[in-house]
# Entry
Amino acid sequence: MEKKLAISIGYYSDKGIKADNDDFVSSKIPDNQDLRTKGIVVAIADGMSSSEAGKEASHACVNGFINDYYSTPDSWSVKNAAQKIMSALNNWLYSRGHTDYQSAKGMVTTLTILILKSTTAHIFHVGDSRIYRLRDGELEQLTRDHRVQVSDERSYLNRAMGIDLHLDIDYRKVPLEPGDVFMLSTDGVHDFLSDRKIRSILKGIEYDTIDSEALNQHCADIAQQALDNQCNDNISLQLLKIESLPLPEEEEVLMKAHELPFPPPLEAGMVMDGYQIIRELHASKRTQIYAARNKETDERVILKTPSVNYEDDAAFIEQFLHEEWAGKRIQSPYVLKVLTPEQKPRMLYYVTEYLDGITLREWMQQNPLPSVETVLPIVEQIAKGLRAFHRLEMIHQDLKPENIMISADGQVKIIDFGSVKIAGIQELKKNTDGEENILGTVNYSAPELYLGHSGGERSDLYSLAVITYELLNNCLPFGRDMPEKADYRQLSQLKYVPSIHINPMVPIWIDGAIKKALSLEVKQRHEDVFEFLYDLQNPNPRFLNNTNTPLIERNPMLVWKSISAISLIINFILLYYLVK
# Structure
């Protein structure tokens, strides 16, 4: 019988003498293919006591890491996947701390991760929580505390999650042996128990046959001893023991399995990993998209495959994998859902839900001048989809009608992740051909991207405003295409064309909201997509009372009614003189 990685694990977490518990611990032992390709994750976090939302931060870090780790592409190394996730989480905490709590300490926590994969332990660490290993009676601390001691009474964390945009992560990997015992603990444990005391407690575990229930009891006993030693902090720890390991050479086999080949061009009727191809939907020099059917469940899906033109391009492959992971992170009814295949993929591709509909571009061609009442629900759904990206500190960067699908019943979904930027993760600066490249599409990309600045949520807002204008007026807001590689002077010469000049049925306040969202200066736009959406749905007095705006732009219906009334009077006068 083939051996596999197996552990016993127990945990304990309690507020101790404090009013609330800012610690959080969790673990995941998958029972499927993820055990081989991803391994086991054990995590512990200690929310900083002086942080306004330390408890929320510790929960978000542990749960967020575990969920995101098992969504990363199998071909990513443990180190690559974990560091990307921790960087993204750090930026999210930092942003939330400043936005929600107006504080540099708004959401701050330690985070210590132990990933057991094949015969290796991978350790990722920020803060002063710890990982110990007991082997052959010898206790070793595998992490170092990121704490500066000011005096006997005072110390402070000099590294933590959410405290700074730059995150310095300690990483090391150590070989595993059957019988190894690991302890993850917060400072409420190891600050009140000496290493000698911890070793004496753990020695009994190393050589005994033990299950998770017994480990839970050992954790509780250790916590009690810390309390007996006057612990004045939250108390959290996890104990795990390595019961068995796979063959050492299995890791090399897994590495080879990760070097997936590109699929060949697929045709109707062909079967790949249980998916039968129905037809090709779209092809470019970079990717192909196919409608397919899961032969086992009969579910219709979409397969996206990379073009063989790039099979030797490491940057392209990394971006393709990044695209899949970005899609898996988002769960929203307004964003295309990326699925996890039931079988282990033998080639490089990813699977999404099947959407029965057309692109927004096709819809716009079929509906050249839709009513405002028709347009606003579409824009609202796109905004909600963008909001799902932004809540995870992700920027879409390529929002355009071709990347939005709409069904026959009006359901809207954002469908492309090829240019998504995740905060804290260095995005590709160049395209796969080695040339400088704006990731978005010219007419829909915000001006700051042309000028070499980093995009943000308001860059996506700009793209949404262009789409809104185009939906209402069937043309672009500046009357022509944006210039390629424009500089600030060229951009500043662009003149917004008021909707009244094209479609007099667009209310003045809606046009005012769109114009604000299309401001050249980022800070002059709305704060976020929902503020823009609110201004579209509710007349903003600032746009209604603009005395510098001609009356025909402020109140087109009044102007047209006045013109009609004057014309009617003139006709009556002419008729009177003709009859006379």
About this structure: The first helix runs from residue 34 to 37. The two ends are 113 Å apart (CA to CA). The longest strand covers residues 235-244.
